[in-house]
Known about the structure:
Elements (H helix, E strand, L loop, with lengths): L1 E7 L5 H10 L2 H8 L4 H22 L7 E2 L5 E2 L4 E7 L2 E7 L4 E6 L14 H8 L5 H19 L16 E8 L2 E8 L2
Antiparallel strand pairs: 1-5, 2-3, 4-5, 6-8, 7-8
Helix pairs in contact: 1-3, 4-5
Amino acid sequence: MIKLYFAKITDFTQADYTKVYSLLNYAIKTKINKKKSNYKKMQSLAGLLLLYRGAYELYGKTNFDITFNEHGKPLCDFCFFSISHCDERVVCAFSDEPIGVDIQKITDIESRKKYKFFNEKENFYVNQDSDLLSMRYIEIFTRKEATIKMLGLSLVSAASIDAFSNEFHYETQYDNGFIFTVCIKNV
Length: 187
C-alpha cells in the first residue's frame, strides 16, 4: 500500500499550524524553531499536517511520537512515511514498507558534460536531449533524493545512488512545473 497526500502551504490556516505545532515533541519544535524564515517553518509544519492527516485516516492514530535516525530521517513506530516540500508544495507518502519521496520545482539547469553526484549513465540520460535537459536533471535528482530518504541516509550518499538501479522502483510524475518521485525497494 502506498498513499500520497499533497497540499500547498496556503491550504492550511494559522489555526491548523498552531494545532499541529502543539502536538509536536520538544525535539521537533526545536528543529522547526531553528528555521530562519516563517515560510520554511510553514513548509515543515504543512508536511507534519499531512503526516497527522494520513496517520489518522490510514491508521487511526491521533497521537504518536516522531523520532529521528542518525541522519535525521523522521520515523514513527506504526508505518513508514516520507515528507518533502518545495516552494509552496508539500507531499507526504505512506507505506507498509520503507518509502522515500521528493518534490522539486522544474528550473533551468545549465548544460554540463558531468553533473555532481551523477554517474556516467545518468549524465548521458540528462544530456541526451537538450530540450529535456532541465526536466531530466530534476527527474534524476528526485530519484536520488527519494532513494536517500527511503534508505534513511544523508545527502552525501547521492553519488553512490544509481537512479536506474533495478534494486529500486520509482514512480515519477510531472505536475504544473514540479516533479515528484516516490521510491520503494523492488521485491
